[in-house]
Amino acid sequence: MNVTTANTEKIDEFPHDRAKHATVAAVVIGRNEGDRLVRCLKSLQHRAMPVIYVDSGSTDGSIENAVQLGAEVVRLDSNIPFTAARARNAGLQRLRDAGWHGPVQFVDGDCEIEAGWIEAARDRLAADPRLGIVAGRRRERFPDRSVFNRLCDAEWDTPIGPALAVGGDMMAQTGALAAIGGFRDEMIAGEEPEMCLRLREAGGSIERLDLPMTVHDADMHRFGQWWRRARRAGHAFAEGNWLHGDRPEAFWRREVRRAVLWAMLLPAAILLAMLVLGPWALLGLLLYPLQIARLAMRMGGDREALIRAGFLTLSKFPEAQGIAEFHLRRLWGRRAGLIEYK
Known about the structure:
By secondary structure, this protein is an alpha/beta fold. It has 2 domains: 3-9 and 17-221, Spore Coat Polysaccharide Biosynthesis Protein SpsA, Chain A (Alpha-Beta Complex); 253-332, no CATH class. Helices cover 46% and strands 15% of the residues. It is built from 12 helices and 9 strands. Strand 2 (51-55), helix 2 (62-68) and strand 3 form a beta-alpha-beta unit. Helix 9 packs across helix 12. The longest helix is centred in the last third of the chain and has 25 residues, at 253-277. The radius of gyration is 21 Å and the shape is globular. The model is unreliable at 3-22 (pLDDT under 50).
């Protein structure tokens, strides 16, 4: 499956199995997820069939565990760069080759499906022929084990109802994804919102349900992990904006501009001002705590809001690093490798 062959015409109704009790297939992707993958696959037993596990070069026994738990395994060729997008496409292609036309639950190998989600999501898709994707609530397994896990847990708290995009956990109509060419294989991050943009442009809709969907295990305990994850987000912002920035909604333009402003232009302006004003120019650094205070008040004004605001402001620096890396590699004609934080 290759996004470059996507049908760009408007679609009145995505082809899908609208039977109320249609079977749901699942595509699980992973790389060295260990016990997290075991929990993920067990949560799908008796809920989804078939289950396809797509492995991106694991060396921890993931493939053997998946086989023991009844999943069909697809091993990605290690001679081609691994991406989550490529893995999801491979799983979807395996289902289509087998003649699958019903809904498919995508789930990352570090997540566990919540009880009741599969049935509710399946019924919601069956009720609306234009609904291409549904997602629910994702929550962290251990939010209290680190500030970084708590930040992830807050990140998953997104609005309910019609949505512009979802993350890696979602239930989608096979026909909806096939109609737009699936995910973009080469994207190392941000492939889900990019796919959702094309789905909406093709006439499909996306909805987030007020239901528990998955339990995620970020397993982040070090600042360096958080930095790499934010850097990966910056790379995604840059690539998505480069691909679709000319669209009416200016895809991810705001995210790119914010990172460039706070982590590049403002520091550069302060340094240049020091040539004229001397140390007085350092007063410009007060803009950062003022920004943190402003964001914290918008988030509720409590201690947790202050922590979130601080990291949100700080995240502009690794995001700017990811943005710069994307454009430098693009100019040099080089593809980026995975940016992993675990």
